[in-house]
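Issue 218. Parser rejects a valid record. Input:
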Amino acid sequence: MDSGDTFWLALALVLILEGLFPFISPGGWKRMFQQLLELHEGQIRFFGLCSILAGLVMVWLLA
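Output the parser choked on:
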């Protein structure tokens, strides 16, 4: 498997994981996004930064 295949496989897994919650619990998914809209921009940026850092650490550990 070359790096191009790995990229597409990773993207496919992201799409699967992103689709699970709205498929399993559409009402909960809507409530989660309503709560997200109530957060301040700084809080949203903090969660985004935490996600980026967690992803980078995982890539570093697995690569």
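Fixed in the parser; the record now loads. The chain has a mean pLDDT of 93.
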